[in-house]
Write the structure tokens for this entry.
Amino acid sequence: MSMKAVEFNHVNMKYNEQYVLQDINFSIKEKDFMAIIGPNGGGKSTILKIILGLLTPDDGEVKVFGRDPKHARDLMGYLPQNLSFDPQFPISVYETVLTGRYHGLFKSYKQSDEEAVIQALNDVEMQDFKDRQIGKLSGGQMQRVFIARAIVRNPKLLLMDEPMASIDPDMQSSFYKLMSQLKDEMAIVLVSHDVGAVSTHVDKIACLNRELFYHGPVEDSARGLEEIYHCPIDLISHGIPHRVLREH
Amino acid sequence: MYDFLQYEFIQRALITAVLVSIVCGVVGSYVVIKRIVSLSGAISHAAFGGVGLGYFLTVNPVLAAIPFSIASAMAIGGVEKKVNISADTAMGILWSVGMALGVIFINLTPGYAPDLFSYLFGDILTVTNSDLLIMLTLDLIIITTVYIFRREFLAVSFDEEFSTVVGLPSLPIYMLLLALIALSVVVLMKVVGIILLIALFTIPAAISKQYTHNLTKLMSLATIIGIILASVGIILSYIFNLASGATIVMVLAAAFLISYYLKD
């Protein structure tokens, strides 16, 4: 029995009378590693927020593991895009990750929560920083803490909004190494506007620019990419200015 | 030299300083870390409408201010999510409308006008025993609420969107925090008055924030600093016959400057 992690059926979303998402239909399977690619403003963050139940579409049906998104939150982990917070905010690395284990009103954190936090910090190699105040970290270190916060409840679906934006190029390979470890345990959906870096690592691509132009394995995505970026296929797929697809 | 400490009104004033500093330490810490200082100022000024209403209805003005300031807090907090007015604009409107309503209610009250000065600028030396009782009750409500919801307040103050994703009722919790600020305004009104409340909310917590990165320690330190500085302010205002609220604020400001330069 393979349940779909996410299902979108005829989803529309408007903002001020303009379509942000138009007739979106796709599904994500339980252990997929998918990138949603598209230009800025094309609706990528909106799709993530709909999956998380932070936004409700104007039309259509969305299911996460067969449930309404708002009832599937305990199965999801979220890495938001811009983390604007006061760098002097009095919270430690440990406390930040612990908030990912929230159970509900009046329920305290348990021993199992503390162990999960330590495990998640180990997974992202930030265990030595657990008592550090959150602002006293480099950009890449902070990103790893927020990834730990996203995975600490062992989600079945991990949603990441532009995770590469605040990672230095030399850290990208350790990021993808972490992803390849996680993808055996959960479905991963990664939103990015950077086509090149992403496509060599993920299994599937969804090309989004208000409409979904393509959805499937990376190898066949050339035409979809062309539609959303309005670039000739050659430019995108044959290495000028950078290689996107695998050698074929 | 220390004879004055035997005076009952001085003793009441010092007890008030303790009760007020607990509120400043706890609630003020959230105001500072969540950067809602202006919002707290707006709630304080809007509360004056409640004071006026209290005089008009011949009930205790402090008690009348409670529902009025809570309602203003809810309006500012909820408006951004529901209506197309920014919280900033709502603050500006409520700030002035609240004050104006207070003045109008008092104008409409028959008999001679009460001494508004003590609500606007504070007069800790005229605190009564029933005022102390109200303050103590509010302190207990505030401390209990903060303790029960400490996980939620921390999560929402740090990252409201993520908190919603992990199942926290972010908006109601934020509104609850604003309601606590509104309650605190009522506790603090008698001490420094509505105009200067902002100083008590922000300065002790701002001083403490330079010395610790742990929220519980921040609150405790802010409370202790508040007690010391407010007491110094009270004694100085008595000795030099100055307005107590303004004197306390000057002591707080001096302490902040000293701590800021000492930090370097």
Observations:
- Chain A touches chain B at residues 52-54, 73-74, 76, 78, 80, 83, 85-86, 88-92, 95-96, 99-106, 108-109, 133, 149, 153 (CB under 8 Å).
- Residues 231-243 of chain A have pLDDT under 50 and may be disordered.
- Chain A has one domain: 4-237.
